[in-house]
Amino acid sequence: MRIAFLLPMSLESPSGLRYLGIARALSRLGHRLTLIALHHDLASVASRSYEHQGIEVRYVGQMLIRKVGNRKFDYPPLSLLGVALASTWQMMVATARLQADLVHLGKPQPVNGLAGLVGRRLLRGRPFYVDCDDYEAESNRFAHAWMQRLAVWFEDGLPRLAAGVTTNTHFNEARYRQLGVEPDRIAYLPNGVDRERFVPPPSDQVERLRIRWELVGNRVIGYIGTLGLKTHALDLLIEAFARLRIDHPDVVLLLVGGGEDYDLLHREVDRRGLQRWIRFVGRVPPYETPAYYALADVMVDPVHPDLVARARSPLKIVEAMALGVPVVTGDVGDRREMLADGKAGLLVTPGDAQALAEGLARVLDDPDLARTMREAALVQREQFYWDRLVDRIVQLYERTGG
Question: Between 3.30.160.270, 3.40.50.2000, 3.40.50.150, 3.20.20.70, what CATH number should domain 2-192+385-400 receive?
Answer without folding.
Answer: 3.40.50.2000
